[in-house]
């Protein structure tokens, strides 16, 4: 039975390359045409493949509907949280998870620092969008015309001397973040707080969330915090892999 299931599932990536006839399917699976036909009929009955008028098979609409439903029900916070906790246990600093919704960047998860000096950020609270590292990652992923439109509508408060001063500077920073694949806030919101962040991507490669590690200068310097960037990026990649389905959840078959 497991071999049958394996063969049936192997048909789907083949048809993702384009329509194929019975002979091509049989050859790819290394089975007789009668076996391939039985598998195709079963997949057809479930709407996962469709037989065209030229007798070739393609992926069925039901498969796309299932994929869309699965994507809509994915909870990036639920997937990310165990990874954020492990990162916090390793480095000891505050870890945030943020998303971009309705022209705001919001924290949707937070794991507190183990140190006495803590940040005042709260889950559900918008971030300082012009300086926050997570905001830079989320906005940098937008198409260029959207990035420009957002940047031109924003106010640019002078939180500190390192705050982003205007739309032109913000767009340059977003372009830099887009190219390097990570972001920082080194005293841009609060003089004493530094932050490094990395993107979480979906199956299509787009940024769906951003995570960060933040710490005050009294705990670690900015240079010391930047040494954690490889760890932050590995954590973000692990979350991305699980969220997009590229890597299996540990403990599952």
TrEMBL record:
It comes from the Bacteria. The keyword Lyase does not apply. Residues 62-245 form the IclR-ED domain. Signal peptide: none annotated. Keywords: DNA-binding, Transcription, Transcription regulation. The keyword DNA-binding applies. PROSITE patterns: HTH_ICLR (PS51077), ICLR_ED (PS51078). Residues 2-61 form the HTH iclR-type domain. SUPFAM superfamilies: GAF domain-like, Winged helix' DNA-binding domain. This is IclR family transcriptional regulator. It comes from Streptomyces levis.
């Amino acid at each position: 039975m497991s071999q049958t299931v394996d063969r049936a599932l192997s048909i789907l990536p083949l048809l993702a390359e384009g329509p194929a006839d019975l002979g091509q399917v049989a050859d790819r699976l290394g089975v007789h045409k009668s076996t391939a036909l039985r598998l195709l009929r079963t997949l057809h009955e479930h709407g996962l493949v469709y037989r065209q008028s030229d007798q070739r098979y393609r992926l069925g609409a039901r498969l796309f509907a299932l994929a869309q439903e699965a994507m809509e029900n994915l909870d990036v916070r639920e997937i990310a949280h165990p990874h954020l906790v492990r990162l916090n246990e390793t480095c000891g600093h505050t870890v945030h998870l943020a998303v971009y919704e309705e022209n705001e960047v919001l924290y949707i998860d937070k794991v507190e620092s183990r140190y006495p000096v803590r940040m005042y950020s709260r889950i559900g609270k918008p971030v300082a969008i012009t300086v926050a590292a997570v905001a830079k990652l989320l906005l940098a992923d937008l198409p260029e015309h959207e990035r420009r439109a957002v940047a031109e509508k924003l106010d640019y408060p002078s939180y500190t001397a390192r705050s982003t001063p205007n739309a032109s500077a913000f767009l340059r920073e977003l372009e830099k973040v887009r190219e390097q694949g990570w972001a920082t806030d080194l005293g841009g919101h609060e003089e004493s707080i530094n932050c490094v962040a990395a993107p979480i991507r979906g199956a299509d490669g787009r940024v769906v969330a951003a995570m960060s590690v933040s710490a005050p200068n009294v705990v670690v310097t900015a240079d010391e915090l930047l040494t954690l960037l490889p760890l932050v990026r590995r954590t973000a990649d692990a979350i991305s892999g699980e969220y997009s389905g590229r890597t299996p959840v540990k403990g599952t078959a």
